[in-house]
What does this fold into?
Amino acid sequence: MTDDSKIKKWWDLRNSALSVSLRSITTKESMPTIIEDATVPVRKLVSLVDIIEKISKKYKMRFVLYGHAGNGNLHIRPILKGKNKERMRAIAKEFFSQVIALGGSITGEHGDGLARSEFVKLQYGKDVYSVFKKIKNRFDPKNILNPDKIITSKHTMTENLKI
It folds into this structure.
């Protein structure tokens, strides 16, 4: 038998946790969503957290971590002072390379998005990426459907990232 009031209490706590975490961010800090959606095999979750901690120490930053640990999908929101896009790019490249090395994905829930478009080739490799480009060109030879998004060589994360 379940106690509905206890279940509601736990759901309320779960739903408020992110909000409470976000209140710790000052106006001089930003939380770019670039590395927010990494997914690794569940058995590699501890390694993913280790990667986050090492990057956090290396770049002297904090982060908010939440998500769906049961399926290996964590939302990582780095908390950065200022809006240095090149620093964020370096963090993202280092992070994504290690996530992929664990057999993970740069995104597990929210899609590649513009902010991660630069890293789609890193995720899938040069050969698969070239197939993506061929498919895009076949279905959209005039590049009118979402021009220069995701499958492109024109834009980089630093141009698309809104921090």
Notes: The chain has one domain: 15-160. The first strand starts at residue 29 and ends at 30. Strands lie at 29-30, 38-39, 62-68, 73-81. The two ends are 47 Å apart (CA to CA).
